Automatic annotation (TrEMBL):
Catalytic activities: [(1->4)-alpha-D-galacturonosyl](n) + H2O = alpha-D-galacturonate + [(1->4)-alpha-D-galacturonosyl](n-1)
Enzyme nomenclature, EC number: 3.2.1.67
Magnesium keyword on record: no
GO MF annotation terms: galacturan 1,4-alpha-galacturonidase activity; lyase activity; polygalacturonase activity
Compartment list: Secreted
Pfam families according to UniProt: ECH_1, Glyco_hydro_28
Species per Swiss-Prot/TrEMBL record: Podospora aff. communis PSN243
Keywords: Cell wall biogenesis/degradation, Disulfide bond, Glycoprotein, Glycosidase, Hydrolase, Lyase, Repeat, Secreted, Signal
Protein name: galacturonan 1,4-alpha-galacturonidase
Superkingdom per UniProt: Eukaryota
GO terms, biological process: carbohydrate metabolic process; cell wall organization
Family: Belongs to the glycosyl hydrolase 28 family. Belongs to the enoyl-CoA hydratase/isomerase family.
Predominant location category: secreted
Reported function: Specific in hydrolyzing the terminal glycosidic bond of polygalacturonic acid and oligogalacturonates.
Amino acid sequence: MASSALPAALKTPPPSVPNVLISFPAPNVLLITLNRPKQLNAIPSSQHAPLAALYDWYDSEPHLRAAILTGSGRAFCAGADLREWDRANNSASTSTSSEPEKVTMPPAGFGGLSNRPGLKPVIAAVNGLCYGGGFEMVLNCDLVVASQHAKFGLPEVTKGVVALAGALPRLGTILGRQRASELALLGRTGYTAAEMKSWGVVNFVVEGEGEEVVREVVREAVKVASEVAGNSPDAVIVSREGLRLGREGMGAERATEVLATGWYGRIDKGENMREGVRSFVERRKAVWVDSKLSQDRKKALGVGVVELPEGVPRSVHEFRKRHPVQPWADDPGRRLVTIRPSKNDNDDVSDDFLKGLHDANHGGTLFLPGGEKFVIGKPLDLTFLDNIQIRLDGEIKFTNDTPYWQKNAFRHPFQNSIMFWKWGGKNIRIFGDGVLNGNGQRWWNEFSGREILDSTNDYLRPILFYAENATGLDIRGIHFKDSPCWTTFFVTSKDISLTDVVCTAESENATARPKNTDFFDSLNVENVRIERAWVNIGDDCFSPKSNATNMYVNTMYCNGTHGQSMGSIGQYAGELSFIRNVHIENMWMLNGQHAARLKSWAGPDAGYGFIDNITFKNFWNGNNEYTAFIDSCYFNIDATTCARYPSRVNITNITFENFSGTTSGKYGRAVGRLTCSPNAVCSNIRFKNFNVTSPCGGSPLVICDGIKGSIGTPCVSSTSNEAKSALASKCTAKMASLPSATPW
């Protein structure tokens, strides 16, 4: 890699990429040049991941605001290296023609660009031939400058392969079906820059002859990049994200909501916005500061710094595309009930909502249409329900009058809980793609600095969805948003299911995080089924409490959570509590505290009980602390107190199977920790195919205390030199990309 002098403002040097030239032709501008002219800048399979890392580096450098991609010689990029494919095909007759690319392709796609969501704009400077994967990269660029002699095309079908790097779904959106079919099905390669401009693929065509026009294409691209870099970097990033959301299939209304509630909130009244307005008033050129969004994008999308395997959702939008809401078919025999929507956020329709449920009870459907808001400002007792459907396509939003709710909300003695409303009855279906909004920001602000389990805490926060004495409660598609405290709490209920749901809690105040916003909590429940959920909150992803039996959880994406937690149980003196027969599989655990954990109380006032027959299977881990964790000294019990008053919760028949991925490095090379109480039975704990690694390097290990017998993986005492060495090897390394195959 050759490069010009590095700008002093860069925090880190660019990563090395074979056959790529890197330079900085203008302030805040990065130029990437593919440099395999003899091979027409065809990209070998080994180069896709390094290029993806280069674009990640570009996004992470606040000083850089626009990037240009071009090629050396007479080609921009002729696509994949077909000679490499041919060699691979000949060496393994059972391989498909696309296997070399498929095995090594990063989530960002061909050249690290064809499927890159990215943070900042990339401008293509198409100097010549642009075929196959090269064209697929261009289709995902933000702006395109092309030589009048450039040629475009997708010849894949003429070679017996398919343009699988992102072009096919984008072509229809950009060009319409007929032109997209012409490009994809005929395989022609003679399309000119002028034609591509008329079709909306190219922005600017540069005229000229010979090598001079090639240089002029880059010069023109630098001018365009400098123009982009001269605008507010915050505004460019957020505007680009809005365009991307729309281009990738999110509707205008939803995309605008995502921007307004997420991205825009990060720049509203920020330094660059204030400077833009001030410079206009003062009639001078704005002086921008580097965007802080460069360090915040992945957090905004809900995946931290983790590179996920191909096909795994990275946002609520991608989750919905992969797992669309599947509501029940309309039943013409059910009567349809509607109510008036709220005129504004202060227009309380609680009475209308209650009447609507009474009217729809015993065989009807209450319909809350999309685009409408229904504000609830008083507690509602909904425990009378029987054979009813609620179709929520709009938004139910609770008022945030915190003193009123703390005085008037329903109460439950377990952990001093309060609730906006309480649901109950039998055969209750709640479905749709609407939002249940707890309006939690004020609650989080006022709770900041407190602890929910602190005996002196008197600031109680409502649970968003509470049900008691419910049988046959089925919830599908709903987005649970910004709960003040726990998101759901099911009590003395059975036959509960949640399918294709979303749960988020994202604070706009960095000093007031959404604490204790567990997605699922329960007390005295049986027969629970949860399938396909996206959870981005600040506490447990799934956490049945005392007396839970027969639970099945399949396919959850948990970001920033405390994990898939059994308990806590054993909290109350003299009280038996238990969890048994739970199967949890196909979990994506990201940027959290732990992945699979079991927690039981210790101390002088703790109760007793058991956790039995629990299976954690198929867990992919990214940036978690311990990936398998048994905590028998819960909650905030120091070692001395725990030793004096150990837990009396038995833990038996626990399986951790098919665990992969990596930890955060917080505990060095220790990837799991099992602490069993001397006052309880702790037996038949099994590890199968446990392959979690540490980013700190070296051999990962599991720490065990109080475990009798083999667990199926090496396990050492916390007092051993091996454990002490592993715990001391702390690091905070970024994860590497994974192959496209499902880890298990």
